[in-house]
Design a protein that fits this description.
Elements: E1 2-7, H1 10-23, E2 28-33, H2 44-49, E3 57-58, H3 66-84, E4 88-92, H4 96-107, E5 112-115, H5 127-138, E6 141-144, H6 147-155, E7 162-164, H7 168-183, H8 186-189, E8 197-201, H9 205-208, H10 211-222, E9 227-231, H11 234-243, E10 253-256, H12 261-269, E11 273-276, H13 279-287, E12 292-294, E13 310-312, H14 317-325, H15 341-351
Parallel strand pairs: 1-2, 1-4, 2-3, 4-5, 5-6, 6-7, 8-9, 8-11, 9-10, 11-12, 12-13
The structure holds uridine-diphosphate-N-acetylglucosamine and uridine-5'-diphosphate.
Uridine-5'-diphosphate is lined by residues 10-11, 14, 201, 203, 231, 258-261, 264, 278-281, 284.
């Protein structure tokens, strides 16, 4: 069996690591890296740290408007599918790389395996929502991380080959958590103490591409006294600079370059609170029982909202502040599986 995997963005490298490891015990996997993320701290670092095999094809598509970026990927992936004739094409999540891979394969009648299927925010203004819906509707195998995701698919009449196998990101956290504790010096490097800082990540287009939303978020940050550490996504850095907004005036804020996965797990595990708009980071906060404040109006990860483990605040300054001040003690419930999602995916493909 030959599987062609399409990856392109940071969270996809992290999701692919546990699946590739299990898949390659028995089968042939070829990796296409679209080049959607290309800075070494957004791409190479994850391949190295997580021992993901080097991509067999690097498309070098880079940044661009949605149509151009997705279109270039589509054309190039199509050529590779025609040449390699894979049995399956595997995609993860909801980026433009996901959609391009799924469309290219479906049109050539190569069955698509979608990992992290069925997620919905019900906000079609998010590019990710379009990508997910389209991908799910052309996929042959839909591996969902939660019951909610299965239910979302059922509501769109997708019921065939739908499986809740748990979340591959949970596999990744369990596999790397101790390694991170052993290897990462990130707290020392930045003079941080355990439970002595808040961790920030912001990169969603709905926040970064709206100057008023960014101003609100930064106003809230400037009113939070505690130390804050912010590994800044290149999109956010570029947008702030185009708005002429500087971060130097925000007290006790350490803005750092994006970090590798082991450093990120360490920053998350030891944070007092995590303030984010990232999908993956919301889940990791929950896995690690660190209270999370999500700077969005909706979340796909509704399970994390139980007991205020994760609080949705949008970009309202007062809501952000009161959620950060709220005393909560999250405890992980097994709603994201048992950390064996990768094995279950491979077994299910094998048994079909
Ligand atoms: C993409 C995904 C988003 C995912 C995120 C993970 C889409 C539509 N969006 O958003 O769902 O949550 O990845 O991080 O697929 N840039 C660099 N260097 C890089 C990569 C990006 O400088 O290595 C900058 C460029 O200015 C680029 C911008 O970031 O224009 C946005 O990159 P892009 O990949 O288009 O979208 P993300 O915001 O990263
Ligand atoms: N991440 C990382 N370094 C960083 C920021 C995030 O390794 O500086 C990891 C994080 O731990 C999670 C994933 O990247 O596993 C989340 O990716 P991102 O927030 O870019 O995208 P999303 O999950 O929102 O699609």
């Amino acid at each position: 069996m030959k599987i062609l995997t399409v990856l392109g963005a940071r969270p996809q490298f992290i999701k692919a690591a546990p699946v590739s490891r299990v898949l390659r015990e028995k089968y042939t996997e070829l990796i296409i890296h679209t080049g959607q993320h290309y800075d070494s701290n957004m791409s190479d670092i994850f391949f190295e740290e997580l021992n993901i095999p080097k991509p067999d094809y690097y498309l070098g598509v880079g940044s661009g408007n949605h149509g151009k970026q997705t279109g270039e990927m589509l054309a190039k992936i199509e050529e590779i599918i025609l040449k390699e004739k894979p049995d399956y094409l595997m995609v993860y999540g909801d980026t433009n790389s996901t959609l391009a891979g799924a469309l290219a394969a479906a049109k050539l009648h190569v069955p698509v395996i979608h990992i992290e299927a069925g997620l919905r925010s019900f906000n079609k203004k998010m590019p990710e929502e379009i990508n997910r819906i389209m991908t799910d509707h052309v996929s042959e195998y839909l591996f969902c991380p939660t019951d909610t995701a299965v239910e979302n698919l059922r509501n769109e009449n997708i019921t065939r080959n739908v499986y809740n196998i748990g979340d591959v990101m949970y596999d990744a956290v369990l596999y790397n958590r101790e390694l991170a504790a052993d290897k990462s010096n990130i707290l020392e490097t930045h003079g941080l103490t355990k439970n002595g800082y808040h961790l920030i990540t912001i990169h969603r287009a709905e926040n970064t591409d709206d100057v008023q939303n960014m101003k609100n978020i930064l106003e809230a940050f400037s009113k939070i006294d505690e130390v804050k550490v912010w590994p800044i996504h290149p999109r956010t850095k570029n947008k702030l600079s185009s708005y002429g907004i500087r971060l130097d005036d925000i007290p006790n804020l350490k803005v750092i370059e994006p970090v590798g996965y082991l450093d990120m797990l360490t920053l998350e595990a030891n944070a007092k609170k995590i303030i984010t708009d990232s999908g993956g980071v919301q889940k990791e906060a929950y896995f690690m029982e660190v209270p999370c404040v999500t700077v969005r109006e909706q979340t796909e990860w509704v399970e994390t909202l139980e007991e205020d483990a994760n609080i949705l605040v949008g970009t309202d300054v007062n809501k952000i502040l009161s959620a950060v001040q709220k005393n909560v003690n999250p405890s992980y419930k097994e709603v994201f599986g048992d950390g064996k999602a990768a094995h279950k995916i491979v077994e299910l493909i094998e048994n079909r």
